[in-house]
Amino acid sequence: MALKLTGTMHTYEWGHEELIAGLQGRTPSGQPEAELWFGAHPSAPALTSEGPLDEVIERESGKQLPFLVKLLAAKKPLSLQAHPSLEQAREGFARENAAGIPLDAPHRNYKDDNHKPELLIALTPFRAIAGFQPIERTLTLLRTFDLPQLAELERTLDDASLNTADRLARALKLALSVDAAEAVAQRAAELAAGDSECKGTAANLAFIAQEYPGDNGVVAALLLNHVSLEPGEALFLAAGNLHAYLCGMGVEVMANSNNVLRGGMTSKHIDSDELFSVLKFVTLDNPTAQLVDGSFNVPVDDFSVSPTSGGEPVAGPAIVINTAGELAVGDVRLGPGEASWVGAHEGCVPVEGVAAAGFVVR
Phi/psi of residue 228, each to 5°? Predict the structure, then answer.
């Protein structure tokens, strides 16, 4: 037997008022609907006819669900952020517990003791900045911008006496402190309006500057890959990769965690020292994820994600999320933007679709 999930909505300030409601075919709530959680994180478990999902799973197996599934809809950029490794999360969570910091304290960094590798599958055109791009690409971009305020940043990245990690770490510190946000914003707007080869990147930077005027996140974004996804394409980020989603809607699958270290582009708590302690100062040539043998190729054990249009049964534990048409998971019928739980002891549950598209997360 499958159980229909009632997700928990989070109305963060960057959320989109219409995208999730439009997918589900309902009237918008008027709130910025940012994330709809279908999972068993203790802070916001999905509901079922048999109780909260975390309690259902505890009764079924005595275990915790290792992944979390969300619908994410961004109208404006999320915070410049990274997530800790498993070891860092365990240490940070224990440290903040020992310090007596309440779990719901605004200045708390670690909400749980888990890491948060994540996969984002676009449902609409989706833009993001993701991971440090190869240094030569950044140098080319800085030379195109040709701003005196960025001269020291360029010299640091071009310093062959430093290894890659040192160059990236020093460059990020400069980017987050140099008085260049206004100059970058103005130059980005000029380049976005022209025929430059970096027009797309410049448009992203102009968008960031428009939403977060004066925030040095726009300078840091010069260091990162700028990614544009079409529906069905995906982005994967391991722990320690600096990133920010910019706009669009997608299905996000991650390890069952809510740990976020922020460095800018937000009104929430920023802890730059803690952020730097979890960052990986390595370049990421291509942050996209490809389908291999029917599943997205991600180098983690916490989850696997496979597209489905019905026709193949599903064995639990699994969450099935529908994104188009109609899926029937056992006796549970799912419209777009709805999800169901298949328990570990249910055997193979049939899945049938009518003009359907969705994902099975295990």
Answer: -120, 120
Rounded to whole angstroms, the Cα distance separating 342 from 309 reads 17
**267: three-class secondary structure by DSSP:** coil
Q: How far apart are the first and last CA of the chain?
A: 16
Q: Which of 259, 248, 298 is nearest to 129 (CA)?
A: 248
Which pLDDT score is estimated for 26?
97
Q: Please state whether the peptide bond connecting residue 77 to the residue before it is cis, i.e. omega within 30 degrees of 0.
A: no
Mean pLDDT confidence for 304-314 = 96
The number of helices, as runs of H, and strands, as runs of E, in the chain is 10, 23
Closest to 271 measured CA to CA, from 82, 15, 11, 118: 82
* Cα–Cα distance, 110 to 96 (Å, whole number): 7
Q: Is 20 exposed, middle or buried (0-12, 13-18, 19+ CB in 10 A)?
A: buried
Per-chain mean pLDDT for the chain: 97
CA dihedral 102, 107, 113, 118 (to 10 degrees): 140
Q: Write out the two tokens for 125.
A: 């055109």
CB atoms within 10 A of CB 213: 11
**Which single residue is written with the structure tokens 């619908």?**
71
Two tokens at 278? 């979890």
- Give the side-chain half-sphere CA count within 13 A for 320: 33
pLDDT tens string 228-258? 999 999 999 999 999 999 999 999 999 999 9
Estimate to the nearest angstrom the gap between the alpha carbon of 202 and the chain centroid. Answer: 22
| Residues carrying an active site annotation | 262
Residue 283: φ, ψ to 5°: -85, 150
Residue 68 has φ and ψ, to the nearest 5°, of: -135, 135
Amino acid at 330: G
User: Which one, of 165, 163, 158, 115, lies nearest residue 140 by Cα?
Assistant: 158
CA distance 74 to 35: 9
